[in-house]
Each structure stands twice: as structure tokens, then as C-alpha cells.
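Handout, page 2. Input:
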Amino acid sequence: MFRKRSCKLAENEKLLSVKCEDGYKLDVMLTIPEKTEKIVIYVNGSGPMTYRTMRQKPDGSLYSYHQFFADELTKRNILYCRYSTRGVTDGKKSPGFCNINEKDYKTYLPMNSVSDIECIIRYLHEKEGYSCPVYLMGWSEGTIISAIVASRNNVKVDGIFLAGYCNENLKDTFTWQMMGNSSITQYRRLFDYDKKGYICKADFEADKYNVRKAVFGDMTFEKLDKNGDGKLTAEDFAAPDYIKATFSAVEKGDDKWLAESNGVRLTSDWWKAHFALPANKNTLPGLDLPIHIFAGDFDSMTPQSQARDIERVFKEKGKTNLTVHYLENHDHDLNYTAFSHFGKVSEGMKELFDTIENMK
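Output:
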């Protein structure tokens, strides 16, 4: 069954409506190469996304987040599959350029996402007739969902590619982010020139990339250095009160506060469901399929140290099915903006695409 959309499809695109286990009709887009040798399903990160996921460049023009992946994979004879988050459709209002159906969006929950991926795989096999290998490419939250899909063995998954890898439970990861670690990781990329782990006043005043005004406005080093120890560290940007308020809103089911106060639109039920899930560090070691993790040293959302932690566990267990790709000067998105803003493919993205292409 096809669902019509006002946006015209390209000749190699196909829009499907996949019926999920609870009856929800999921919008799924395929970009199909001339010869399909394998399939990659993009497993969404957290928050509202669509099969196009429109974003805006600094010059005001719009682009589809997924088009980059579609172009790079199809030229390698790989079918690229992606889907819209439940309750989300393309919209015209920045910055998200999406519309949210509140009733349907409430069903956007991690285990529904797991079963939705399973339904997509079955559909591709049973309705579309594909028999080639299927791989999951999970980003951020998608690294959690991908691992669970693979662990359930309800459908055949031939391998998983994980970027922005989340090793810990979401509650611990969110706490790490909000205790200043996310902020200092981003700032260090701009000011910690010798990678010592903090920003000193000399770095701050040198402003090598001429970004201090844009990043900090008129704030002086002394005002930013809240603990007065002469260096900017995570402690100076920690927000324990915000963490407490977020967890309180989750517990109370205060979706209004969460929608108004969090940068990513997520419901209290989504948070609670994630808090109850096992961490990836407990799931991944039970898998025997090929696993590739792509970890940037400037990942401000899920630190590269988490990839090192799980790699150590695999080595201790004598398992050889995990490969970690450590990427210098790469962020959570593997420097995606190198393409979206400058038309260049980052080294991390090249390594991701080449790894997928060479997977047997």
C-alpha cells in the first residue's frame, strides 16, 4: 500500500505505509539503487524525524538530512531505508520543519520503535521481495534500539553500525550531559588547542578560530570560571537543578514542561520507558553478529569513553565481532555539517560508508 504525499518522489524513491503491530501505519521511504546488493535501515535518534527530515542551512536554504545518506549508499548498490517517527510529518516551520500529532506521538516509545523496525524488515522481505542482507544503522537513541532488535532475533539482522554510541542507560547519559560534560566537550573543540581536557585563560583569549563572541557573547573568562580554579571544566557548566527539574517532570508526567524546557521534544512516557531499559553495555555483549561503532573524540552527547568501555568488555570476553572506529576531531554526527554546510564528506562518514560497502 502506498501513501500519497504532496512532495514529488524521485524516480528511485518509493514511499510505503507499513502496518505496525499495534495497527499504526508507519511512513517508510526507500531509495533504490539500480542493483540492490544489501539494505541499510536508518534507526532514528531521539525526537521528531521524518523520512525526509528537512533542515536549514546558514544561508536559509533547506535540505533533506537523509538525502546525503541515500546518495552515498545507493551509489554503492545499497538500498537506503528510513522512516518517520510515529506521529510526525513534514512541516514548514523552523527549526524542526515538522508537524506533530500529539496522540500518535505518545505512542513513540522505545519498544514500539523496536517492533516497528521488525515490521519494516518483514515488509521488505515479504511484500517487497528482498532477500539480500539487512543492516541497521543506528544513531544515538538508535544505537539502543538497533541492539535490542538484534538481540530479540525476531527478524534476521546481518550486522549493526552504531554512531553516537550510547553504552549507558539514558538516565545516566542525560545526567552526564547536563553535568557540564556536553557543554565543555563542545567548547574544548573550539578552545582547547592542545587537548589537555580543559580551557585555560590563554586559550580563551587566543580565540584561534575567532568564535568567542559568537559562543560566549560578552562573558569574561572569570565569569565563566564559576569555581575560580583558573580553568574551564565541566563543573563550570553543570546544571544540577535542571536535571532535578527534568526528572521531576518525568515522574509527574508533566509533558507541557518537558515540551517547553527541553531542546528535543520528548514525552514523559518516552523517558520512563527508556529509564526502565537495560543499558547497551548489558545487551551488546550477548550479540554475535558483526558490530561496528563509530566514535568521535568530540562527541558531546555520548562520550567516546563509552565506546572504549564496551570494547574492553568484548576483549575480556574473547569476542571478536566488535570493531570500534575511533575518529579524531569528530562529533556526535561524525561531522555531518561538513557536507550539509560545505559539500564535503567527512573522514568519519567516508569510513562509515566504506565499512558498510565492504561488509560481507
